[in-house]
Write a structure and sequence with these properties.
Chain lengths: 324, 684, 333
């Protein structure tokens, strides 16, 4: 296993005034053998970033490399991906065995018997009965299909794995098993992984590092415990306060009036300065003195701030002041 | 004449959803569908007709060829007589024989035109998808333009170039059909190419050609074949039309269209000369159409069935709710005075081909004024159906029964009159899961709110609109006056959910039922909506029934949590006591879902197996197959909760509940299996 | 305060974006129209040149007088260079000059203006009658048979409609002629003379298309009735007729409109056959006879007229659609 590196990655869809900068100048590294969690709301560009890493979305700027080598646009990618929807993940007209066999064939496993043995091994690796190989996907539950998708990705012996919202379409009672499997594979195979989810609790559970994405950019990144215990960006704090926590009352996460009902920004037309400023609980909408948030680019001196937080006030005392 | 384009798109929609999980049985889809086609009487008829038509085309000229050319000079231009059931033509040739012989040319030409249309269309459609992004846009623009022109123009075009004759006609009809098939191929394959399994194959490095042959073609073949059959049918008719006009088959050859034209001239002397070939055209056209229609319908039916399956749960296992199960006798209780909702033994059943399925199997529930109750369960647990049937929004084939179903002193089991309708419309409101689809896309948001007041409170539209704006302000929509005049697509998901809540505030809400109101929303917006639900509840005094799969959502808003599994309530407890849940399912659910406090070092608790197969529920406790505490008793005899009015909170429908020593709310710990007497007081 | 301002600013920006989307829709639609027009005009021009061999000889026969052939060639402009011919053709087209019919020696534009109104009258009346039958029938059947109710009615209706829509209009015309004109002699067999002469041709074209369209309207209505917002309307306890007419129907209109466009274009084609059967003084019989007699200027003009009609219908449908359902138009653009 090895490291995946995004350098100044930008993905733009369309052109002219209607263009959408889905990903904008992202720098991110998934170090060898670690799981990097990527959180953000819908429209933050996290899935586009993932698709770019496997060559499904074209880069407008920057580069994505694995161990310094750019990702090829054709042929077997060193990065494999598991998708959100367990129903669409597998070809309904192919048995489980055929789906895995196809992946193995591309990976260079020749001969029927060899392939059969490998299929069995892969299924066992994801804790599925090898007998399932003769079944069509329709006979499997959502959780089982996600595990087959994982096995198929493993068949290509990837250097890095990307998991895009792989548990969000699953029933709650089977999510846990898939998450356990991810952790187990990481431990046993030393898997490097980019784990994407909108659910901070899930990301926290599986990741070593967490990156927070907002409107196409990474606004904070830090080791999991640090990010959870000492968030630097107000958006991270907002996510933390709204994360599922049993028994937590709503008032704990209540925001000041100025930003409580602000709509998420339009990604086609991001706000100036810090793109989070209209929603920021410590920003200009609440503290009228902070006009620099509207005008200044918070990414300019990002390396000097704790957690590479894209907030002009990160690390300063005033951020920690709780308005409630 | 307008060729076959009209039918071509019909089945795109049904096939796009093809991948919906169908039945759990590992039967190869294709074979079972063919079997289904054969099984229906219509299907048998259609296939027999197809075979007959093809046999006729092959053997007709061989058998009747001479007879069709023999002149009976005694009977020129005669009507039906013995020996000539359809009469004869000008030259005394038998019309019936000629109709039978003409089958080969009629069908052969129609099929060749269809073949040309399909081959050209599929090639163009595939090319449009395989080409680069720019080129494929050009392709689809041209396909769009070509589809818009009727086949007539092409027929004209080819008739001029090749002169009136079969060559021009076949090419014309083929060319007329091609754009439709190109578009069909393009849409179908685009929908397949967009699916994740194709992306996965690309990422794996599977070659383009293999993706096409192995993934795309098999997944679009079926709708293409269905449409090809339909197209063959309309092509047959169109070709007959061209020949009829004299633009198709030329003398001395003859097909049905040609014969029809000749027969029409003699319609006064021998109507059968025209009606005979007409009949042949209609019957063979119908044979093709019928087959195609059946195929399309079967494809459609399969997906709806799959969807219904997913929704449903539970079969009609014969365990009737024993009164006093678990040793507690059910008391005939009257609804307590402050209850806004009283539900006793609510059952929802659906009759299917394979017997009756019961997705909700005896739910008891009481919601008091101003209370917030949450129903938690996985998909298929029956929680949403419970909510819908309480609100009276289920419809056939679902059948709802209940011993009692009271809302605000209104008996919902019987038909409600005009006044009852107004009462329900103003005091019971609902918020659904998908904010994108629960508002009418063609009606201004403000009017959708105002409608409640004009319908039930006799307000004028002007006053009702004013009230709608003020309610939108109440649910914290900025610039509500302007917003009210917008259509829903200009609103974000969170705003739409707030509009739904505002809609409930138009009257005097007593109960707000929210079915997964935040599932489709981002976490930050989710928080806003939950807060709004809570403040709405507090300000209006309405009770809240919140349905969710997410325990943390329910626990943040509700006072009381009801856990459902396989159509029944398995546990009901105060929110504060969640950590001390007694039912192994609740317990497992709590541990299986990571929260911000879950220890990262330990593996998550898992629940073995999967939620029960709706078609075959176990006799005993439905959770028993997945339960670590289950024993032989659980497998034969389900533990049931006593009727709600007499139910103590903190009971679990389990023979072996977890018994924690401490309970935060002070509810006494009871093991249902050991309780022998009624009268456990309700706390809280 | 700041929040309100930013929201409004955001909204107005979205407003200008919407205007932008409309502009894009108009540009795109206009582009398609121009492109289609050009294709149509060029195809109509190219038709004669694609005929294998000499078109004039093909028309006049191989024994024709060479002088006549030369004169005819000159008349059609075939003796000039292709590009010159194309420019002359475009120029004449702009002035409404469609040439002279080789058969009748009348100006083509005069023949068209004599006959086109009859075709339009037939197609127009059929269109209105078809929609008047099909839409209420489809909507009514959808309401009656929703949620799988009244299986028998549904089966009877769908199979009846299927059979009717599978019978082509010219066959129906033959049967109708046989029954009402020949057997019972109730209605005129052919020609255009007053109201009664419309009945048979209109009926022949209406029955099948009304059956087909009502089926699709029903399916569309059923799918709308199954959508969440109809459940919302039911949760508001609105009266059923309001749910059906105010909530469901407008949403089923998009598909109905698209269909009407298709119907109208296919009716233009259907008239050709039906006019021939009923000897209707429209463009249909002219078209057939001019093809058979290789009257090239006439055929070319008819191609242009039919094609232009279809393009016009599509344009109208798209504009109406954009007004009724802005989302679909924007999505397309």
């Amino acid at each position: 296993m090895s490291s995946l590196e995004f350098r100044d990655v930008g993905v733009t869809f369309g052109f002219g005034p209607g263009a959408l900068r889905a990903v904008d100048g992202v720098n991110l590294q998934v170090p060898d053998g670690t799981v990097v969690g990527l959180v953000g709301e819908s429209g933050s560009g996290k899935s586009t970033l993932a698709r770019a890493a496997v060559g499904l979305a074209p880069l407008t700027t920057g580069s994505i490399t694995v161990d310094g080598t750019p990702i090829p646009r054709r042929g077997t990618r060193p990065v494999q991906m598991i998708f959100q929807d367990p129903v669409a993940a597998l070809d309904p007209r192919m048995t489980i065995g055929a789906s895995l066999g196809e992946a193995l064939a591309v990976a260079g496993v020749r001969g029927r018997r060899d392939r059969g043995r490998q299929i069995g091994r892969l299924l066992e690796q994801v804790h599925l009965d090898p007998e399932l190989a003769v079944r069509p996907p329709a006979a499997l539950s959502g959780g089982q299909r996600q595990r087959v998708a994982l096995a198929r990705a493993l068949a290509a012996e990837p250097k890095v794995m990307i998991a895009d919202e792989i548990t969000s379409a699953l029933d709650v009672s089977v999510q846990g098993a898939v998450l356990n499997l991810i952790r187990e594979l990481r431990r046993d195979l030393g898997l490097s992984m980019l784990f994407i989810s909108h659910n901070l609790a899930v990301v926290r559970y599986v990741s070593d590092l967490i990156a927070v994405m907002y409107l196409g950019r990474i606004v904070e990144i830090a080791p999991t415990e640090q990010l959870i215990n000492d968030p630097q960006h107000p958006y991270t704090r907002l996510l933390l306060s709204t994360a599922p926590r049993l028994g937590a009352t709503l008032s704990a996460g209540r925001l000041p009036d100025g930003v409580r009902d602000v709509e998420p920004a339009d990604p086609h037309d991001p706000p100036t300065g810090c793109s989070f400023h209209p929603r920021c609980p410590v920003g200009p909408a609440v503290d009228p003195g902070r006009t620099d948030c509207v005008t200044d680019d918070p990414f300019l001196s990002i390396d000097e701030r704790p957690h590479r937080a894209a907030c002009l006030y990160a690390g300063r005392h005033s951020l920690r002041k709780d308005p409630a | 004449m307008s060729a076959a384009n009209d039918h071509v798109d019909a089945s795109v929609d049904s096939t796009a959803k093809d991948a919906a999980p169908s039945s759990g049985k590992p039967v190869s889809g294709r074979r079972s569908r063919l079997a289904m086609l054969f099984a229906t009487p219509v299907g048998i008829a259609a296939i027999t007709a197809d075979l007959l038509v093809i046999l006729l085309a092959v053997f007709g000229p061989i058998i009747w060829g001479t007879r069709a050319e023999t002149n009976d000079f005694d009977n020129l231009d005669s009507g039906p007589i013995s020996g000539h059931p359809f009469g004869t033509d000008k030259l005394g040739r038998d019309i019936l024989a000629r109709v039978l012989v003409a089958a080969r040319l009629s069908i052969g030409l129609a099929l060749s035109a269809t073949l040309i249309g399909i081959v050209v269309g599929v090639l163009i459609g595939t090319m449009a998808n395989l080409a680069g992004r720019r080129l494929s846009r050009v392709f689809s623009t041209f396909i769009g333009i070509a589809v818009a022109f009727p086949g007539l123009l092409l027929a004209l075009f080819f008739a001029v170039i090749f002169g009136a004759g079969p060559t021009g006609a076949v090419l014309a009809l083929g060319a007329a059909m091609a754009p439709g098939f190109a578009r069909l191929t393009q849409t179908l394959s685009a929908s397949v190419v967009g699916r994740d399994f194709v992306s996965a194959a690309k990422v794996l490095g599977v070659s383009r050609l293999r993706v096409l042959t192995r993934h795309v073609v098999p997944n679009i073949a079926e709708p293409l074949i269905v449409n090809a059959t339909l197209a063959a049918g309309s092509c047959l008719l169109a070709f007959a039309g061209l020949s009829f006009l004299g633009l198709g088959v030329q003398l001395p050859s003859y097909d049905w269209g040609r014969m029809l034209a000749e027969g029409l001239n003699a319609i006064y002397t021998n109507p059968m000369a025209a009606l005979g070939p007409a009949l042949a055209i209609v019957l063979s056209g119908l044979a093709f159409n019928l087959t195609g229609e059946l195929g399309a319908q079967l494809a459609g039916r399969r997906t709806t069935r799959g969807r219904r399956r997913q929704r449903g749960a539970a079969d009609g296992s014969d365990d009737q709710r024993a009164p006093g199960a678990g040793g507690l006798p059910a008391a005939a209780d009257t609804p307590s005075s402050d209850a806004v909702l009283v539900v006793r033994n609510l059952r929802v059943s659906v009759r299917t081909d394979g017997g009756t399925i019961e997705p909700v199997r005896g739910v008891d529930l009481t919601v008091r004024a101003g209370e917030a109750v949450g129903i938690v369960g996985e998909s298929g647990s029956g929680k949403s159906l419970t909510a819908l049937s309480i609100a009276g929004l289920t419809h056939e084939p679902l059948e709802v029964t209940a011993d009692e179903l009271w809302f605000d002193e209104l008996d919902l089991r019987s038909a409600i009159g005009r006044r009852g309708r107004a009462q329900l419309g103003t005091s019971l409101s609902l918020v659904f899961q998908d904010p994108m689809s629960s508002l009418n896309p063609t009606m201004r948001v403000g009017d959708q709110l105002a409608e409640v007041a004009t319908e039930h409170q006799h307000l004028s539209w002007k006053n009702a609109r004013e009230r709608a704006v003020s309610r939108l302000r109440d649910v914290r929509i900025a610039a509500p006056g302007r917003r009210a005049r917008q259509l829903p697509h200009e609103w974000s998901g969170g705003m739409r959910q707030r509009a739904m809540i505002g809609m409930g505030l138009m009257g005097e809400p007593k109960l707000l039922i929210a079915d997964e109101p935040t599932t489709a929303l981002d976490v930050t917006v989710q928080q806003q909506v939950l807060e709004l639900l809570e403040s709405t509840k507090q300000q209006s005094g309405a009770a809240l029934l919140l349905i969710s799969h997410d325990l943390s959502v329910v626990s943040s808003v509700c006072d009381r949590v009801v856990v459902m599994y396989a159509g029944r309530i398995v546990e009901e407890l105060p929110t504060a006591d969640l950590e001390h849940a007694r039912h192994p399912y609740t317990k497992a659910l709590l541990r299986a879902v990571p929260s911000m406090d879950t220890p990262r070092e330990e593996p998550l608790a898992t629940i073995a197996g999967r939620p029960p197969d709706p078609a075959s529920l176990p006799v005993g406790c439905p959770f028993a197959p997945r339960c670590p505490r289950a024993d032989d008793r659980c497998r034969v005899e389900p533990a049931l909760l006593p009727v709600a009015g007499r139910r103590a909170l903190g009971l679990a429908a389990c023979h072996h509940p977890h018994l924690d020593p401490v309970s935060e709310s002070g509810v006494s710990i009871v093991d249902i299996s050991k309780v022998g007497a009624p009268g456990i007081g309700e706390t809280r | 305060m700041a929040t309100v301002e930013t929201t409004i600013a955001g909204a107005s920006r979205r407003q200008s974006l919407l205007a932008n989307e409309w502009v894009r829709f108009a540009v795109r639609r206009l582009g398609i129209l121009v492109l289609s027009m050009w294709l149509l005009v060029t195809f109509a021009f190219g038709m004669i040149h694609l005929i294998p061999g000499d078109p004039v000889r093909a028309a006049l026969g191989f024994n024709a007088d060479p002088a006549l052939v030369a004169a005819r060639r000159a008349e059609l402009g075939l003796d000039q260079g292709l590009l010159t011919q194309y420019w002359t053709y475009l120029g004449q087209l702009l002035h409404g000059d469609l040439g002279t019919s080789l058969q009748s020696r009348l100006p083509v534009s005069q023949v068209i203006s004599d006959r086109l109104p009859n075709t339009l009258a037939l197609a127009g009346i059929t269109f209105v009658v078809t929609l008047l039958i099909a839409v209420p029938l489809g909507v009514g059947m959808a309401i009656l048979t929703q949620h799988g109710r009244r299986r028998g009615t549904e089966l009877g209706y769908t199979s009846g409609a299927m059979v009717l829509s599978a019978i082509p209009e010219f066959l129906l015309a033959v049967v109708l002629v046989y029954l009402f004109a020949v057997k019972f002699q109730l209605l005129p067999i052919a020609g255009r003379a007053g109201f009664s002469s419309f009945i048979l041709p209109v009926a022949a074209m209406t029955l099948g298309s009304a059956a087909a369209i009502s089926r699709i309207v029903r399916v569309e209505m059923l799918s709308v009735l199954g959508q969440d917002f109809v459940r919302t309307a039911a949760a508001k306890r609105l009266r059923p007729h309001r749910i059906y007419l105010r909530h469901a129907l407008p949403n089923a209109m998009t598909a109905t409109l698209t269909l009407s466009g298709l119907l109208l274009s296919s009716l233009v084609a259907a008239t050709v056959l039906v006019e021939n059967i009923f000897a209707w003084p429209g463009l249909g019989p002219t078209m057939v006879s001019s093809i058979l007699s290789k009257d090239f200027p006439m055929v070319r003009a008819i191609v242009l007229v039919y094609g232009g009609l279809v393009l016009l219908i599509n344009l109208v449908v798209d504009i109406v659609l954009a007004i009724v359902d802005p989302r679909s138009a924007i999505r397309k653009a």
